[in-house]
Amino acid sequence: MGYLKNSGSAGLNEDAYSLSDIDEIQNALLGTHGEYDLPKLMKIDVFTTAMALTYLNHTYAGRIKPNEVDSKENIWVEKYKPVDLVDELYSAIQNNRIDLIIERAEPQYELYEKLKIAREEYKRIVAEGGWEKINLEDFKKIKIDSTEEFNHHVLVPTIRNILNKTGDLQLAKNEVADTSQIYDNKLREAVMNFQERHTLERDGIVGMNLLKEMATSAEDRLTQIELNMERLRWLSDSLGDNYIIVNVPSYWMRLYDSGKRSFETKVMVGQSFHETPLFMDTMKYIVLSPKWHVPISIMTNELLPKLRRGGNYFSRNNFSIYQRTSDGIKEISPNAVNWNAVRNMGNYSIVQNAGASNALGRVKFIFPNANNIYMHDTPSTQFNKANRALSHGCIRLYEPEKLANYILKEKADTWTPEKIHKAMYSGDTKNVYLSRQWVVHIVYWTTWVDDTGKVHFAKDVYGYDKAQREILAKRDINLKNWMQKRTKEFENLKRKEIALR
Q: Distance (Å, rounded) from C-alpha 308 to C-alpha 311?
C-alpha cells in the first residue's frame, strides 16, 4: 500500500483513496491479542488487492475516459489497448516485483516524467503559500511597459514577487522586499519569459491578458499539471518510431524522426465552435497544388450568402460551381441560379481550384480519418497572433514547404526541394504517396515541459480542462465514499469480535 500512499506523485488525488483508512482497517482486523487470524487476513487481502487493481487501472488508463470530457463523436479518440492487470499483478507478487508493475503502468513518455518533476515543484510552491493574489476587478484597464509614460505602477512589486515565485525572475534576498514601482529592464525580461511560458505574445507589455495568467493561483497550476498527466494515460502505449504531434492549445506541430525531434512549426487550429478533433492516424500522402472541395457546412453557412449577394467573388477567388441534375453533374455560372430560392446545397458542390487564393495554399498532408481533418498550407498571415484558434477545424501550417521537403526526403531522387517547389506552384494537382509511415497525434496539452526544463501553460481554448476537472472531482468523491464504507464494515467486524469475546 506504500504506492497508494504516494499516489499524488503520479498526479492522482491522494485524498480520494482515503489512505489513512487503510491503517485503520488493518488495526480493525487485528485480533484482541494483536494477531491476525486467517478469515480476517483473507478479508484484508481481498480489500488491498482491490485497491491495488484500482490504483493500477487509474495509473495505466486514467480515472476517466476521454469521451467523458467531450461526448461529440470522434472529438477525442486514441487507440487503446487493454491489459490484463489481474495477471500482471499476480505475476508481480509471485516474483516480488511490485515496483516493476507500478513503473510499467505509468505512461512511458519523457513528457510524463517531466510533468512529475514539475508537479513536485508546484506542490512545493503551494505548500509555501503560493504567490500573491491579483484582483482583476481593480485593474480592468492597465498598461505597463518600458516607456517613460508607462514604466511605473503600484502593481509592479506584486508582479516582481510573483515572477520570483514562478522562477521567471531571480531575486537576491535583499531584493525580495523591494517595493519599487519602477518597471525596469530586468523585470521586463522576466515578464517576457513568463509570456513565452504561458503562450502569450512575447512583447514585455503588462496588460490584461498577462494579468489573467498571473492571477491564476499556484493551486490551479498544480491541478492543470495533474490534468495533463491524466491525458497522457489516454495515449497509445507507443507514439511510433516516426511521428508528428500537433498540440492544439499551444499552436505548435513537432515532427519526431526515429524518436528525435527534427522539425517544428507554428500552426492554426479550429475555433472554439469548430474544434479540431483529437485522434491519431497515419499520414499516407501529400497533395501538391491541391484543390479545395468545400464542405457542405461552409457552402451553406458562408458561401451561399455570398452567392445571394452576387458580384465577382467566385471568379476572383478561382471557384468552380457544379450542379447535380438528372443528366449528371455539370459546371454552372454563379449567376445561373436564383440562390435566394435555394435552401439546401445538397445538389451543388463548390471547388476552389489550385492557385494563390486557394484556402489550402500550395500543399496539404493527408492522414485519412473519419473527421476529414488534414494539415495544409494557407494564404493567411496571422501566425504572429498569440491566439491561433482560427480555422474551421483543419490544421494550418506556418512552414508547410519545409515540412514537405522533410517528409519527401524518402523520395529524394524524384522529389528534390526544387521539384517540390515547382509542383506546389504549378497549379497541376498531384498526389505523392509515402512509403515511410508517419503517425499523426493531435493532442490537447495545456501543460508541457520544454527541453530546458521550463514548464509551459496554455489557455483552455475548448474548455476541456474545466470539464475534466469537474468530472474527476465527482469520481474522486465516489472513490472516497467507497473506501470509507469499507472502513466502517471492517470496524464493525472488530466490534462484533470483541462483543463475542
A: 9
Q: Which of 155, 126, 119, 124 is nearest to 138 (CA)?
A: 155
For 29, the grid coordinates are 482486523
> How far apart are the C-alpha atoms of 220 and 199, rounded to whole Å?
17
Question: 288 by DSSP, 3-state: which?
Answer: strand
Say whether both 52 and 98 belong to one domain: yes
Q: Are residues 360 and 349 in the same domain?
A: no
The whole-number pLDDT of residue 476 equals 85
Q: Maximum distance among all alpha carbons in the chain?
A: 98
* Together in a domain, 274 and 332: no
Beta bridge partners of 349: 322
For the chain, the straight-line distance linking the first and the last C-alpha, in angstroms and rounded, comes to 31
Q: Are residues 264 and 406 in contact, defined by beta-carbon separation less than 8 angstroms?
A: no
* Model confidence at 96: pLDDT above 90: no
120 and 58 co-located in one domain: yes
Mark whether 278 and 365 lie in a shared domain.
yes
* Antiparallel, parallel or unpaired: β 375-376 and 328-332: unpaired
CB environment 355-393: b (16+ within 10 A), e (fewer) = eeebbbbbbbbbbebebebbbbbbeeeebeeeebbbbbb
Domain CATH code at residue 398: 2.40.440
Count of domains observed in the chain: 4
Model confidence at 69, in pLDDT bands (50, 70, 90)? Answer: confident
Cα–chain center distance at 59: 18
Range of the domain at 173: 131-216
Grid coordinates given for 207: 496588460
Which of 353, 373, 394 is a domain's end point?
353
Show which residues are catalytic: 376, 394
Closest to 76 (Cα-Cα) out of 284, 375, 280? 280
pLDDT digits (tens, 9 = 90+) for 316-361: 999 999 999 999 999 999 999 999 999 999 999 999 999 999 999 9
- pLDDT bucket at 201, cuts 50 / 70 / 90: very high
CATH code at 161? Answer: 1.10.101
Whether residues 72 and 151 share a domain: the answer is: no
CA dist 123 and 121 (Å) reads: 5
DSSP 111: H
The residues, ordered by sequence, that sit 6+ positions from 55 with a Cβ below 8 Å of its Cβ are 3, 4, 7, 12, 17
Residue 408 lies in a domain: yes
Report phi then psi at 419, rounded to 5: -70, -35
